[in-house]
Amino acid sequence: MTTRGLSRRQILGIAVGAGGFALSGRFGAAIAEALKRTPGEILGPFYPVIKRLDQGADLTVIPGKPGRAAGEVIHVMGRVLNVEGQPVRGARVELWQANAHGRYTHPSDTNPAPLDPNFEGFAVQTTDAEGRYRFKTIKPGAYPANPNWMRPPHLHFEVTGKVNRLVTQMYFPGESLNDKDLLLQNLRANKDGAIAKVLLPTADVEPASRLVVWDIVLDKG
Fold first, then answer.
1. Is 151 part of the annotated catalytic residue set?
2. Cα atoms in the 13 Å half-sphere on the side-chain side of 72
3. Of the listed 79, 143, 171, 210, which one is catalytic?
4. Which listed residue (75, 103, 132, 156) is catalytic?
5. In whole angstroms, what is the distance from residue 154 CA to residue 196 CA?
6. Which of 11, 34, 108, 162 is the most exposed place for a label (fewest CB within 10 A)?
7. What are the pLDDT digits (tens) for 105-131?
């Protein structure tokens, strides 16, 4: 069922990007019943070795350095919910990613693409009382997983709630490599749940940036 062409999940996502709204009554209950668990994925070989806990939620700068990360600025935001649509307060949300050239700041990454001296690609946050999280970062580049497989742009997440722990990846809509990605195409049960919604910037962020809205759904929270 959709409302004016938008799925229930998209309605939730747009609400987050616009500042959120209260779900109540029969409509709110219907949305809650429709939520599916965000699909899990592998941790991957580039989970950070060194994690700066003073990074904060802005990955575009490194504390103590004057430069800014190269690439398109994105504001990644959403809510951590359980399958009943209830916010998960106090969930730990870790994000790590490749830089704009498609390379990770990790000793095991042999990709010849350049490192970015102003980008380390890791941050962690705790969700607020409404289950909300928000990071400022750059859109990662695609990179070769092997000679025959290019991975599309994606962000890695590890979410630890009171009951559940989820390792997953978030993808961008409309990427040509999405249809060929082995990991994304393997998510047959809820592939749509791994793809974010990209919105135009609001007045409080950089005019050339984008809002990337993605809710993360745990089983119990």
1. yes
2. 16
3. 143
4. 156
5. 10
6. 108
7. 999 999 999 999 999 999 999 999 999
- 10 pLDDT band, cuts 50/70/90, is very low
Q: Residue 91, CB half-sphere, CA atoms under 13 Å: how many?
A: 33
Task: Specify whether 8 is catalytic.
Answer: no
- How many domains does one find in the chain? 1
Q: What is the pLDDT of residue 136?
A: 98
Range of the domain at 51: 2-218
The CA distance from 138 to 26, in Å, is 38
Active site residue 154: yes
- For residue 192, give the CATH number of its domain: 2.60.130.10
CB distance 99 to 69 below 8 Å: yes
Say if residue 17's pLDDT is above 60. no
- CA 41 to CA 125: how far, in whole Å? 20
Annotated catalytic residue, options 9, 79, 104, 210: 104
For 20-75, write each residue's pLDDT tens digit. 433 444 444 444 457 999 999 999 999 998 787 777 899 999 999 999 999 999 99
Choose, from 8, 37, 132, 151, the residue flagged as catalytic: 151
